[in-house]
Amino acid sequence: MKRGAWDLLVGVTATASALWAPADLVLGLPRARLPVEAALSAVFLADLAVRARERRGWALLPDLLAALPLGPFLRPLSLLRAAKLLRVSDLLRRWREDEVRRTAVLRLAGFVYWFVLLTHGVACGWIALGGDTAGGSRYVGGLYWSVTTLCTVGYGDLTPKNDPQRLYACFAMLLGVGAYGFVIGNIASILANIDPVRASHLQRMEQIGAFLSYRGIPPPLQSRIAGYYRYLWQHRLEEDEGEILGRLPPGLRTEVALFLKRDLVQGVPLFRGASEAFFREIALEMRPAVYLPGDEIVRAGDRGEEMFFISHGAVEVVAPDGGKVVARLGPGQFFGEVALLHDRPRNATVRAAEYTDLYRLERALFHRVLEHHPAIAAEIRARAQERL
Ligand code: CMP
Predict the structure, then answer these.
(1) How many CB atoms lie within 10 A of CB 248?
(2) Ligand 1: residues whose CB is within 6 Å?
(3) What is the pTM of this model?
(4) Beta strand pairing call for 356-362 and 306-312
(5) pLDDT in tens, 110-143
(6) Residue nearest to atom 12 of ligand 1 (CA)
C-alpha cells in the first residue's frame, strides 16, 4: 500500500478509536466490542511495525499503548488508544506542510477536527459522572452540555448536582475558554490570510493612494496609475513573474518559464515548428512588460535594444512623419526587429492601443536566435524587409 493511503487509513482508524473508546466506556456498546477492538489493534500493530523503521525507543511508546488490546481486560484501559492521536497530529502537520495551496482551509479543518474530538470527550466525561442529560438520549444530552459549556454559552438548563460534577464543569469551562479563545483567534487570522494576494494588493493600493495624494499627483495621472494596477490585478495578480521565478532553482525555473511562455511562443506563427531546444533557449530570457493604452513602446529615431512579441492586447505602428497609423498588430505578432537587424534607428513609433502584455527579446539573444535558427532568421528578415 502506498504511504499516503496507509497514513490516511491510520488517521481514520485513530479518529474512530478516539470516538469509540470513551463512548463505549460510558454508554456500553457491547455488541461489536470484540471485533472492533481486534480490528483497531490489527491496524495499530501494523502501523507500529511501519513506525519502528523510522523511530526507536520511547518515541514508539504511544503507538505501542494504542496498539495493545487492553480494553477487553480492563475497560478504562481502552482509553489508552487515544495516544494514537499524537500520530494524527503528526500527520495533519505533515499534510499541511506538503500542501502549498489551501493552507488556510486545511488549518481551519484541523481546528474543527480537534474541536469535535474535544467536544465528544468532554460529553463522555459528563455522562460518566452521571451528569444531568434531561431525559432523551444520554449521548445527545451529554453532547449538548459539552457544546454549550465549551462554547461558553452556558444556558444553565443542565447543571452539576454534586461536587465531582461541579469540579468537572469548572474544568470543562476553563478548557472551553482556552480552546474557544485559541480557535477564534486563529480563525480570525486564517480568514484574514485566506486570500493573501488580495490582502497585499489592497495594502499596496492604500500605500500608493497615500503617496499620490501626498505628492499632489494630478488626477488624470492618478487614474492611469489606478488603471495600471487594476489591469495587473486582473491579469496576473500582481505577481512579478521574474521575482517568483528567480527564487526557484535553475531546473525548476526553466520548466515553469517554459510552461508560462509556451502559449505565447506557440501563439507566434514565426515560432511554430521550432525545436524544443529553441524553446528552452529563448523562453527563459524573454522578459514580460505591461503597457497602458497610449504608451509609447518604441519611438521613431531611437536606438533599438530589443524586439517585442505581443502576448495580449494590441499596438499601433505610427509613421514617423505625420502620425498616421500604418498598422495594428495583435497577439502573436512581433515588432522592433528592423532596428536590431539592420542596426539603424527605429523606423516607426509603436504605441499600445489597449492594455498590452509584451515579452521583450534583447539584442544579444536576438542575434543568438538568428545564428542558431536559420528558418526563423529567414522569416524575420523577410518581414523586416517588407517593413523597411
Ligand atoms: P523598428 O524599426 O525596430 O521599430 C519600429 C517597428 O515598427 C519596426 O521595427 C517594425 O517592427 C514595425 N513596423 C514598421 N513599419 C511597419 C509596418 N508598415 N507594418 C508593421 N510593422 C511595422
Answers:
(1) 13
(2) 298, 304, 317, 326-327, 335-339, 346-348, 350, 387
(3) 0.61
(4) antiparallel
(5) 888 999 999 999 999 999 999 888 888 899 999 9
(6) 335
